[in-house]
Design brief:
alpha+beta; 5-stranded antiparallel sheet; 5 helices
């Protein structure tokens, strides 16, 4: 049975044609001092938790491919359980997001037990 992947991302692409993921969207709010104190606390505590609990894909540090996107494995419940708090922040700031699921995120360039980073087929963003 194929693995299903899930991605929470912006509904519209940015100026570079990319759909920014949930963490990137909330990180942008935090870096620009746009979060309320309780949102800020949630953001920092949970980003720190993710950093401590899960591998950081090296492809981000190395900037391997500008179109690469992270997808959570749908079975990674520990990884996914805190995402609703990030989505609530996006909702509070009226930032549109969508949940996208697929069994084919593109060419996988990184994988661990929780996630993959994949390059979509050129000119295509999986929307399945």
């Amino acid at each position: 049975m194929p693995v299903e992947y899930v991605r929470f991302r912006s509904t519209s692409p940015n100026k570079n044609g990319l759909h920014v993921g949930v963490f990137g969207l909330v990180n942008g709010l935090g870096r620009n001092w746009m979060l309320a104190p309780d949102e800020w606390r949630f953001w920092r505590e949970n980003n720190d938790w993710y950093d401590a609990a899960f591998p950081q894909p090296p492809v981000y540090r190395e900037k391997v491919h500008p179109r690469a996107a992270a997808w959570f494995k749908s079975t990674a419940s520990d990884f996914l359980e805190r995402v609703p708090g990030y989505l609530a922040i996006l909702d509070a700031h009226r930032i549109a997001w969508e949940e996208v699921r697929t069994t084919d995120p593109g060419t996988i360039i990184y994988e661990d037990e929780y996630q993959v980073v994949a390059i979509p087929v050129e000119g295509e963003f999986p929307n399945r």
